[in-house]
């Protein structure tokens, strides 16, 4: 007897572009939170993020917490130099290192 899950295990990919700052974080929040219902894995491609400030970092923390709440794997892929520098300066390397930053297989 095999049991099939009724919840699809979806992989959602969102490409982030431009600044992730106090000026854009609010509008990005709803979009990012909408990725989680029913998703088994969410990948945020951060290769085109050219600026990340404390509001952007807070948004990434919120998204990480949301992923942990729902047992969704969050993958931050292809982080730009701006993203890497902001996360290192904030001391959040370890917080976002599970799983570690990844390079997309297609890159």
Secondary structure tally: strands: 3
Query: Which H/E pattern describes the elements?
Result: EHEHEH
Rg value: 14 Å
Structural class category: alpha/beta
What's the rounded overall pLDDT mean? 84
Number of helices: 3
Task: Write up this protein.
The chain is an alpha/beta fold and 107 residues long. Helices cover 33% and strands 28% of the residues. It has a 3-stranded parallel sheet with strand order 1-2-3, with helices on both faces. β1, α1 and β2 form a beta-alpha-beta unit. α1 runs parallel beside α2. The protein starts with 9 loop residues before the first strand and ends in a 17-residue tail after the last helix. The model has no long low-confidence stretch (mean pLDDT 84).
């Amino acid at each position: 007897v095999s049991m099939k899950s009724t919840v699809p295990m979806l992989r959602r990919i969102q490409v982030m572009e431009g600044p992730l700052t106090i000026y854009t974080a609010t509008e990005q929040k709803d979009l990012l939170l909408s990725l989680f219902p029913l998703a088994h894995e969410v990948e945020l491609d951060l290769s085109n993020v050219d600026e990340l400030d404390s509001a952007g970092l807070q948004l990434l923390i919120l998204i990480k917490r949301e992923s942990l709440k729902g047992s969704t794997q969050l993958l931050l892929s292809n982080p730009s130099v701006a993203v890497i520098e902001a996360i290192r300066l904030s001391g959040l390397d370890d917080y976002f290192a599970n799983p570690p930053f990844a390079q997309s297989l297609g890159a």
